[in-house]
Design brief:
alpha/beta; about 375 residues; Rossmann fold; two-stranded parallel ribbon; 17 helices; single chain
């Protein structure tokens, strides 16, 4: 099967390319720029460049593909603005199905007890990208009612593994001695090891009943944030039981700042930015990079002495509920193929290959394996 992966240079998209290629599928990575091809070029695949807002370039990239996996991260404008061009291009190219990577955050970062896929999304959240995911899902399903291209939606939680920001950011904080756990890490961490997510996507390629459906997908184990942090903390020599209470940075933007953010993240602005060369945008970011946020009323010295987390992270770490995967099991036949423990071990082995962590972790990986095996 020929499968196009939009956002193939990202964490999930790249892993999808790897696993589906090994399965024997003809995988076509689709990225936004030449710079994004570096990691993918090693496999000598049929890579294509397309603008997520441009129906014509997407149509050319989708030509001959039976399924498109849409795995784009970015601003709320990009999330919303890429949907209509993607569906129109898929329709024109004769694609059978779009598999869209949404997120559990359509039900907030801490879904309420009893939440299932049919539970109405929580609108008007304080985080623009969360609302954008809701809008994107609704737009896709509306287009499906009018068009011929099938749609399947996944709502994963904390997707982790080698090359994930969750793993690398946690490692950075542990190496600096300031990891943050809210409420001692007792909240539920809705993890899904990346290979488990790709396995669910792999199942959805052909299951007829998946059309028009949304699925939670996660790991088998019930994992708290303490459980998730513990294997990483162990190899970094950090005792999680001795961590000081974390402070929570509250959203404190003025209405002027919120207005500027709204304009900056709009579809029009994001469509324009998509035409600007990456190198130039990176230079601008370095020139105008803001100072890190800190809790209201706290001095810089206070922040250093007491680890802080963002409001969004605090909500995530206070989640009371493990999202069910019953629907994915019943319709897709989904069962996780990798345990959380194994996923953590593989993630730590990847960290040990990075230059900044290698001196610290290289001697500890073998011990970790023997400890968990």
């Amino acid at each position: 099967m020929r499968i196009g992966v939009v956002g193939a240079s990202g964490f999930v998209g790249n892993r999808a390319v790897e696993m589906l290629h090994v399965d024997g599928h003809e995988v076509r990575p689709i990225v936004r720029s030449v710079a994004s091809l570096a990691r993918l070029s090693q496999r000598q695949l049929d890579c294509r460049i397309a603008n997520a807002f441009d129906r014509s370039s997407l149509t050319a990239a989708f030509a001959g593909c039976e399924v498109i996996i849409h795995s784009i991260l970015g601003s709320s404008g990009l999330i919303r603005g890429s949907i209509a061009p993607t569906y129109a291009a898929a329709q024109r190219a004769g694609v059978r199905r779009i598999i869209y990577l949404s997120s559990m955050v359509v039900h907030t970062s801490a879904p309420a007890l009893g939440t299932i896929e049919a539970t109405p999304p929580i609108t008007n959240q304080p985080f623009p990208t969360h609302n954008a995911k809701i809008d994107a899902e609704r737009k896709l399903l509306q287009l499906r009612q009018q068009g011929e291209v099938e749609v399947t939606i996944f709502r994963p939680g904390i997707v982790f593994g080698a090359r994930s920001r969750w793993v690398e950011d946690l490692a950075d904080r542990l190496s600096q001695g300031d990891p943050c756990l809210v409420d001692r890490g007792r909240g539920i961490c809705n993890t899904v090891y990346v290979d488990n997510l790709i396995h669910a996507i792999r199942l959805a390629l052909t299951v007829t009943a998946a059309d028009g459906e949304a699925f939670f997908v996660g790991d088998r184990e019930r994992v708290t944030w303490y459980d998730f942090y513990q294997p990483f903390a162990e190899v970094f020599g950090v005792d999680l039981t001795q961590l000081p209470p974390a402070t929570v940075s509250q959203l404190s933007h003025t209405w002027q700042e919120r207005a500027i953010d709204s304009v900056r993240n709009s579809e029009l602005v994001q469509k324009t930015l998509n035409l600007v060369p990456d190198e130039f945008k990176q230079q601008l970011k370095r020139s105008f990079r803001p100072q890190p946020d800190r809790p209201i009323g706290e001095s810089t010295s206070a922040v250093r002495s007491q680890p802080g987390v963002s409001e969004m992270m605090a909500i995530l770490q206070r989640s009371p509920y493990q999202l069910p995967v019953t629907k994915a099991q019943q319709i897709l036949g989904y069962e996780p193929i990798i345990s959380v423990r194994e996923g953590c071990c593989r993630s730590i082995e990847w960290l040990a290959q990075l230059d900044r962590f290698q001196p610290l972790l290289k001697s500890k990986v073998a011990h970790l394996r023997s400890h968990y095996d």
